[in-house]
Amino acid sequence: MSKNLDFVKFDKVDKSYDGKVLVVKDLNLDIAEGEFITMLGPSGSGKTTCLMMLAGFETPTNGEIYLDKNPISNIPPHKRGIGMVFQNYALFPHMTVYENLAFPLKVRKFQKDEIDKKVDKALSMVSLSGFEHRMPGQLSGGQQQRVAVARSLVFDPQLVLMDEPLGALDKNLRESMQYEIKHIHESIGVTVVYVTHDQSEALTMSNRIAVFNDGKVQQLSSPDKLYEEPVNSFVAEFIGENNTFAGQVTNMSGKACKVKLNDGTEIVANPISVKSNGDKTTVSLRPERALINTKEKMDNNFKGKIEEVIYHGDHTRVRLDLLGNKEFILKVPNSSANMDIKMGNQINVSWNSHDARALDPK
Amino acid sequence: MSSETGKILTTDGIPLEVSLKKAERKNKIKAFLLVAPLLLFLLITYIFPIGDMLMRSVDDKMVTEMLPKTYKSMEKWDGKELPPEEVFESFYLDFQKLVEEKRDGKLSTQLNYTKNGFKSILKKLRRKAKNFEEGNYKEQIMAVHQRWADVEYWRAIQRRAPAYTSQKYLKGIDMYKNEEGNIVNVEEDRRIHRILWLRTLEIAFFVTLLCFLMAYPIAHLLATLPMKYSNLLMICVLLPFWTSLLVRTASWMILLQQQGVVNDFFVMIGLVADDNRPEMMFNKTGTYVAMTQILLPFMVLPLYSVMKTISPSLMRAGKSLGGTPFIAFWKVYFPLTIPGIGAGCLLVFILAIGYYITPALVGGASGTLISNQIAYHMKSTLDWSFASAMGLMLLAGVLAIYWVYNKLVGVDNIKLG
User: Which ipTM did the prediction report?
Assistant: First the structure.
């Protein structure tokens, strides 16, 4: 089966609410059929606006959105056939679970027995069989959430939009729901566009993630690439933890460059978005990529003073004063070899230049 | 363990219930003292007057107290033929006492209510009674006027014996107890109260309907518009509230009269001929227009408070699931506003059913309501017991409507804001 690679297509979409500020700027985004794509970004970054334009509750100020190659700007929401899960579930409080699920089928004029069958199937998919006659108010948050998911899928839409659906749940429930939604997606192969501001949620669930900031997609790639190879400092900061050094490029040499930090030391880094000598840059390094007292040969070796030690059980977080950065974080695995980590000690820290990415200055 | 001792004890061995009561007592007393002034106020201004009204509407002690001996001697009389000498004698004694105390006028008014013709024969009796000789009062009284020899008049006196009566209530629905003691309708051309009751219900119903139809879109707009516009609109809704009721009604008079603004406008745009201006005041139209305008905020506010709580994402969910805007409204939004509709309709209907000033000023003859009739009896005829009876019937009607409403919608579903 050949997959439709631009099942949903945002083509040069701009959106402004007041004619002064662009909330979404020149958005170009292709979503493949069957994909789980997440729009991730801080609040006010334009991700929910994109979702609302796709659902039909907002119209693009400029540009066009295509669904399965057809422009949809002039199609009202109820004719788009897109399932949607809302932030606070938006279950109809005056209807039972059954009636909530039957609503999209009834408006599509399905027969009674067919409705029963589909509702049954959708409820068993979210393991809520037997809850048909409860009112939404009698369900727990997690159960309401599952009803909302079931309702968005019960009429077999090709595309489902989810607007921060797990935002109101507590941590444990949120994690188990993440897996549940992921499994549902895998088993029925529906295309999902998911909006969240929680990066761990995005990393666990998605095929691809679009990081939004300031109305623009900063990076669109798979979760591992996003984490390992951020293309700019916003993405590096936003996804996961990150140690940064501000400095100036002094020596470009193909796959590596030297960066002179503000305190005068030079480090070797991987040039990503710097072009030539003299460029200002922010070097980004993941905490787990820096090792202490290692025997491996690495091209960056420095001494740092331990400022703070936080015990986390399986690992210890260590805050160092390193090369003028007092917020340098290390994650040290809990092993017998690392027993000399005490406040005030000097330790050796090393990393590969490949992992130190020289990005745009902040 | 508690099943053995029967009671749960606190650590110190005092039964838990006793201990709890002791601990809560202070709070309970405080709470009661806080509400006590209000309770007293309600008792004095609400419960007592209604109780007094109830007493007044059924009270018929006046005649009973004026003729104590007569009613005592009448106990043995079967009412078929003229009463025995004993009754005549005690009536004479009672009457003489009243004449001495100059209270015979009241008696004649009261008896005349029961049967026409008492006034003149009592007057005559008073004149002649001065010269009565002792004994054989039956002959002497019957000689005063032929009506005294008519058993009907004696029966009329007997009918006033009970200290309590339902006749005011019967009068309120155009019925009365006839001489045989049966409850019958009054003659057709004298039935005015039933028409008034029906008209009151009709006007209250249509005013409620009109208010609902107009308030629903306004409340929806109020609940969904951005803050700066909705505040302005809210002020527009509340502005009439802040204006005196009389001023508002008077301004409707200016607008609606035959030479008024609305008529002038109709003539100007050629809708009606100048010599054929429609009458929009001193009839039902005037009452409808003015009452709807005045009661509109009472519908808007409960609706608004309910609509404000309905999340806009519910309508969106309805649409995204495939419902047309109409279906999303009808199946999702509308059912959620029913508590507000219930509260608004109940409020407007109950207010409308007892409305007084507006119909009195713009209603004319065909636009007045039962409350105007009550006011008429309070101020003009001074028949307070009848006014009380009608007031209580109105109250009972309102309670009945509330009861029906509770059965249909459920009071728990009302949301007044």
Answer: 0.79
A:B CB pairs within 8 Å: 66
Residues of chain A with Cβ-Cβ distance to B337 below 8 Å are none
Residue B222 to chain A, least CA–CA distance (Å): 20
What residue type is A167 in one-letter code?
A: G
Closest Cα to residue A18, out of A53, A55, A61?
A61
B interface with A, Cβ–Cβ below 8 Å:
311, 313-314, 316-325, 327-328, 331-332, 335-336
Domain A8-233 has CATH 3.30.70.100: no
Name the domain count of chain B.
3
Contact A92 B332 (CB under 8 A): yes
Kindly report the nearest CA distance between residue A49 and chain B, in angstroms. Answer: 14
When mean pLDDT is compared across A116-130, A295-309, B326-340, the lowest value belongs to A295-309
Q: How many beta carbons lie within 10 A of that of residue B69, not counting itself?
A: 17
Statement: residue B177 has pLDDT above 50 = yes
Residue A234 has pLDDT above 60, yes or no: yes
**Structure-token pair, residue B258:** 């035959």
Question: Is the pLDDT at B138 greater than 70, yes or no?
Answer: yes
Asked if A61 and A231 touch (Cβ cutoff 8 Å), the reply is no
Q: Which residue of B has its CA nearest to A88?
A: B313
Domain ranges of chain A: 8-233, 241-359
A 273-332 residues inside an 8 A Cβ radius of B = none
Q: Which of A184-198, A215-229, A241-255 has the lowest mean pLDDT?
A: A241-255
Crossing angle (nearest 10°) for helices B104-114 and B85-100: 130
Selecting from B313, B314, B320 the residue whose C-beta is nearest the C-beta of A77 gives: B320
Q: B365-389 burial, b if ≥16 CB within 10 A, otherwise e? A: eebbbbbbbbbebbeeeebebbbbb
- Say whether residue A17 is in contact with chain B using an 8 A CB cutoff: no
Question: Quick one: B276 and B348 in the same domain?
Answer: yes
B33 and B76 belong to one structural domain: no
Contact residues, A window 131-160, toward B, CB-based 8 Å cutoff: 151-152, 155
Q: Which of B228, B314, B321 to mutate to test the interface with A (most CBs of A within 10 A)?
A: B321
The predicted model scores a pTM of 0.77
Residues of the domain holding B7: 2-49
Same structural domain, B296 and B218: yes
Tell me: do B158 and B197 sit in the same domain: no
- How far apart CA B169 and CA B174 sit, in angstroms, is 9
Contacts with B279 (C-beta within 8 Å, 6 or more apart), sequence order: B258, B285
Cβ-based contacts of A119 with chain B (< 8 Å): none
Fold observed for domain A241-359: OB fold (Dihydrolipoamide Acetyltransferase, E2P) (2.40.50)
d(CA A23, CA A249): 34
Per-residue pLDDT band for A1 (boundaries 50, 70, 90) equals very low
C-beta of residue A209 within 8 angstroms of C-beta of residue A202: yes
What mean pLDDT comes out for the span B41-50? 89
Question: A76, B320: Cβ pair inside 8 Å?
Answer: no
Query: For residue range B144-168, what is the model confidence (pLDDT) as tens digits?
Result: 888 888 888 888 888 887 888 888 8
Measured between beta carbons, the chain B residues lying within 8 angstroms of A87 are 313
Q: Please give the Cα distance from A114 to A209 (Å, whole number).
A: 37
Q: Give the pair of three-digit tokens for residue B279.
A: 């009458």
Query: Does the beta carbon of A104 lie under 8 angstroms from any beta carbon of chain B?
Result: yes
Helices and strands, counts by H and E, chain A: 8, 20
Q: Are residues B212 and B84 in the same domain?
A: no
Minimal C-alpha gap between B411 and chain A (Å): 17
Helix axes B104-114, B118-129, angle to 10 degrees: 150
Test B316 with A90 for CB contact under 8 angstroms. yes
Tell me: pLDDT of A97 over 60: yes
Q: What is the mean pLDDT of residues A108-130?
A: 89
Within 8 A of A152 by CB-CB distance, chain B residues are: 321
